[in-house]
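Q: what does this look like with iron/sulfur cluster bound?
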Amino acid sequence: MSQQIDEPMVRLAIDADVCIGAGQCEMVEPNTFIVDDETAIARIIDSAALPKPRAQHVAERCPSGAISISHSAVGPNSRPQPAADLRRVPPS
Ligand code: SF4
C-alpha cells in the first residue's frame, strides 16, 4: 500500500496485556508489526507512525483492540519515532 504524501501521520502502540497474537496487524502492515515467535505478542518493528487511514484500518482489524492510535498527529514529512515497548517483563 503506497503512502499518501499529504496524509497525517499518527502514532501507534500495542497493549501487550490485550494482544492475543492473532497476527492480523502483521498481515495488514508487515513492515510495521511482527508477532514474536516466543511470546506470541505483536510488537512494532519499523515505525510507530503510519498515515491515519492505514493506522485506523490496522487498528480496526485487531480482534482484541490491542492497537491504539494517538490522535496527536505527526507531520507528513516528519520522521516517525519508535513506539514504547509495552510488553510486560516476565517475572524472574
Ligand atoms: S492484530 Fe491485535 S491481537 Fe493480533 S497480533 Fe496484532 S496487536 Fe495482537
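Residues 78-86 have pLDDT under 50 and may be disordered. The domain at 9-74 is CATH 3.30.70.20 (Alpha-Beta Plaits).
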